[in-house]
Amino acid sequence: MQVTVKANFNKQTKDSKKELVQFYVKGEDEKKPELNQMTREVVELTIEGIEQKLTCEFNKISKDSKKTVLDFIVKGDTSSDQSFNFYKKAGSDVTLTIVESQMSIDEFYDNDHEGVEYKVGQDGTVEVTPNQMSLEDVPEDDPEEDIFSETDEDLLQ
Predict the structure, then answer these.
(1) Cα within 13 Å of Cα(56), Cβ side
(2) Residue 48, domain member (yes or no)
(3) Whole-angstrom Cα distance, residue 10 to residue 21?
(4) Which of 5, 10, 68, 130 is the most exposed place for a label (fewest CB within 10 A)?
(5) What confidence category does residue 89 fall into, taking pLDDT thresholds of 50, 70 and 90?
(6) How confident is the model at residue 35 (pLDDT cuts 50, 70, 90)?
(7) What would the 3-class secondary structure string for 1-53 be?
């Protein structure tokens, strides 16, 4: 699914946890049903005149009597160059194209990490992928090794 709207690129903010881009849509474009259908989905944003795309979560849509506000959370591994090219358009009217991505919300928020592979079911149960590790692979503690120094033991008494 794809929708193109005339919008005002209201703001782009970034903190230590996430980057947010916000657009104001006015007029007939704010009535497009596709906007509501893509909310809470992963989408790709493009602005006319900019080559780069931003992969985002279409976080929310809110309406008041004057405008419709579209909020997007930018994917964490987006390069600075991509964000900067979008940022140059902040505060201006743009033609925004929103395309539904093939990526799921889980994939969007999945941070690659080392460790045990697992899947979390709908009911919250965890299923560990078999044959990843055995008890023999876990290093044994040396019983001769004292984890407290004498000064630590003195402090504990």
Answers:
(1) 28
(2) yes
(3) 8
(4) 130
(5) confident
(6) confident
(7) CEEEEEEEEEEEEECCCCEEEEEEECHHHHHCHHHHHHCCCEEEEEECCCCCC
CATH number at residue 18: 2.40.30
* Terminal C-alpha separation, the chain: 67
Please report, as a single letter, which amino acid is at residue 2.
Answer: Q
In a domain, 120, yes or no: no
Tell me whether residue 86 is in a domain. Answer: yes
Confidence of residue 143 (pLDDT cuts 50, 70, 90): low
Output the pTM of the full model: 0.63
Q: What is the pLDDT of residue 16?
A: 74
Length of the chain: 157
Among all chains, which residue has been given the structure tokens 């903010």? 13
